[in-house]
Amino acid sequence: MFVVERGFTTVNKKVRKEEVLAIRNRFPTKIPVIVQRFYKETHLPQLDKSKFLVPQEITMSQFQTIIRNKMRMNQNQSLYLLVNNRTMMSLSTSMSEVYSEHAGTDGFLYITYASQEVFGSDGNTASTKQNRIKIK
User: Fold this and answer.
1) Phi-psi region for residue 123, left (φ > 0), alpha (ψ -120 to 50) or beta?
2) How far apart are CA 107 and CA 135, in angstroms?
3) Residues 59 and 94 sit within 8 Å (Cβ to Cβ)
4) Which tens digits make up the pLDDT trace of 57-89?
5) Burial class (CB in 10 A: 0-12, 13-18, 19+), 55
């Protein structure tokens, strides 16, 4: 698993596993999630906290709304959630499904967030239209 998350992966894996075990024993219906900003992201702010304990029945869409609210984003700003720094899940997928398929070996679910600009668009559609090449 490739995770850009530097702060948490530097903690001993055994310690992280023990933390997840304690969390899951105390809150069996919650999912331990670590959320980090994509390393190339410059438009979106860092979150105040990176660890979340979320209900397993909520969807990725609901989780995305939680993250958007924490960052105080407006509706016009784009936000993409990447599981394990590479997979975009359907927003209708439940967190329990995401967790069962993509939980790290330490038991945390790692989610990275990014804006559209990180993926190559500056959001200016006019400049995109001007740069198109016509092939005859």
Assistant:
1) left
2) 51
3) yes
4) 999 999 999 999 999 887 788 899 999 988 999
5) middle
